[in-house]
Amino acid sequence: IEPDRFPVVFLFIKLPYEDYDVNVHPTKIEVRFFNSNLIHSQILGVLRQKLLGTNIETPVKLPPKNSDNTTGTGQRSQNITDAMAEFFKRHRPAHSQQQISFPYKSAQRNSIERVENETLSANRYPLNAIQIHDNYIVAQTEDGFIIVDQHALHERIMYENLRRRTSVGNLESQKLLIPESFEITDAQAETIENNSELIEKLGIELAAFGPKTMAIQSFPSILSKVSPLDFVGDLIDLLENRELSIDAQRLLDEILNMAACKAAIKAGQKLNDREIEQLLADGKTVDCAGRCPHGRPTTIKFSMSELEKQFKRT
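Below the sequence we write its predicted C-alpha cells.
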C-alpha cells in the first residue's frame, strides 16, 4: 500500500471456548490460543485469499465538466481530457479513419504478424501495445485500455522473483571477473560481520582486500544490470540505519524492495516491441501486479464508457 496509508480489517474468529484462554491478563487485553499456529495459518489464509481475489487495478473516473466547481479538480480533469484527446489525435492513422494501426519498422513487421497469427496463451497480452514518452505502455483491453508504468510493473515482477528465490535458498551468484573493492569504517566492518548470513543469502560474497578495504567477489546473477559497488554501498547503509526492533523478515523485505527498484526497467528507457510484450506477459504471472512494492499503482485502467463520455458519444 502507499506510504502513510493504513489498512483496517475487522476479523471475526469463532471457535470452541476450550481452545482459548481470556484470563491470561488482568485487564483482558490479551487472549491466549492453545493452538496458536493453527489460528495464525487460518488468519493468513483468509487474508491472502481475500487480497488475491481483489482487483487492485486503478480505474479512471473523470468527473463531467458541469460538476467542476473549483479550479483545482476541474483544471486537473480538463488537463487529463485534453491530454487524452491530443494522444488519440497524434496517434490517428494518416490514411484511414476506420482502422487503427501502429507503424512498425519493416524488419519487425513480418515477425510480429507471425506472432499475431498464432494463438495467444491466456497469460499474454495481444501485440497492440505501444510505448509513449519512453515511460508508459498503452495496451488495449476487452473493455477499454490500460496505461502501464513500465518501471513500477517491472519492479513488482523483480520483487516477486527475488522473494520467491530467497524463500527456498540463497540467490544464485556469479563470480566477478575483476573483484570490485571499496573502503569501509570499523562500524561498517562490524555491520557486515553481524549480517554475514543475510549477505550470503543475497548471493553476495565479500572478502578482506587490505587495511579497511573489502572486495566484492561474487554478486547475484539476477541483478546483473545493477552496479555491484552501488548496491553493496546502499545495502551497508540500510543495515547500519535499520530500526533495532525490525525483524529479520521485514529487513529482508526492505532489501528486496531496494534490489527490485535498482534492477527494474527505468523511466525513460526505450523498449522494443518484444520487450513490451514480455513485460506485459510477465506482469500476468505475478500476484498483486497492480501495485509496485512501494504501493504505487502499476496500471491505470480506462473503460470504454469513460472514454465515450469524454468524447461526447453518450
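Confidence is low (pLDDT under 50) at residues 92-126.
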